[in-house]
Amino acid sequence: MSSFSFKSFSWRKSKSDSGHSFSPEEERFLTENMGTLRVPEIVPSPAEDCDRLKKAFDGWGTDEKALIRILGQRNAAQRKAIRETYVELYNEGLIDRINNELSGDFRKAAILWVYDPAERDARLANEALRSYKKGIHELQVLIEIACATSPHHLMAVRQAYCSLFDCSLEEDIFSTVSMPLRKLLVGMVSSFRHDKEVVDGIVADSEADLLHDAIKAKQINHSGVIWILSTRNFFQLRATFACYKQKYGKPIDQDIVKCGNSDLESLFKIAILCIDTPEKHFAKVINKAIVGLGTDEDSLTRAIVSRAEIDTMKIREEYANMFKSKLDDDVIGDTSGDYKDMLMILLGAKV
């Protein structure tokens, strides 16, 4: 096996890795306005929405359609106001009431949607780490949170995780995931990367070489590789990946197979895809969830709920390009009832 070392390389600090104070506008993720969530031009007050929700719960049987039409057309800030107002007005939590009134996949989708996005992802991460099996299917959730969301969102998830579970996300990964996956996951979730479009071409060129040398030496889990993937901003990494393809003839995620076909290589490929083109990753997640025998409702729900305010328009387009099929039609064909309506309203359909 050839030897490879990062010790001889003097890390050049990219201009994009300096400290920065983020404005609210900068905190919006890179694919702003590409979600499918439809918020009405005139939105009722939180008190009015709560009154309608209370009536939907208290009537002769739950009015599921009313619940879907209210909550499924409110953004994260509006849902937060509804949650806070509901408990003030009725002295009960909205999520607790939803949990008591609904059931099955519809209940899970509704609850995940109503949660604050950071709390939702913290709970999804904890669920993945508490699962008996910790393969790609479970652990890719952590990569999605670390590599397909903004740095500020990742920080919020880590804070929510500590508040909810009395330990850090990194501690739970360390205690529940074995090496070598542990090293990659801890590195990715503990990162804080700059969130501005600044690219250094010299850094992209040199780090493309370093990544290629690591893959050639089958040392992809080297600390230097994880350092690059976990600290450089998304634009810088995309430039590095493009430089890699130009210099070496193949996309880096295709070259990773030279290192093997274990869960480690699969997680690295998912991380690169989530950084480079997250819409492709989530199109794959959705397709895998609905093709074949049975439906993976948890993965389908996670993909649509977590991306509805970010990039589901891009995911829809990528899905059609990759699978020669319409995402909406495939979701409708593989789901039913209120669960189907909940997913479809988040995809922009009228229910």
UniProtKB/TrEMBL annotation:
Residues 1-11 have a biased composition (Low complexity). SMART domains: ANX. This is Annexin. Pfam families: Annexin (PF00191). GO terms for cellular component: cytoplasm; plasma membrane. GO terms for molecular function: calcium ion binding; calcium-dependent phospholipid binding; phosphatidylserine binding. Residues 1-26 are annotated as: Disordered. GO terms for biological process: response to cold; response to heat; response to salt stress; response to water deprivation. Belongs to the annexin family. Keywords: Annexin, Calcium, Calcium/phospholipid-binding, Metal-binding, Repeat. Residues 14-26 have a biased composition (Basic and acidic residues). Ca(2+) binds at residues 57, 59, 61, 101, 290, 294, 334-335. A pair of annexin repeats may form one binding site for calcium and phospholipid. The keyword Calcium applies. It comes from the Eukaryota.
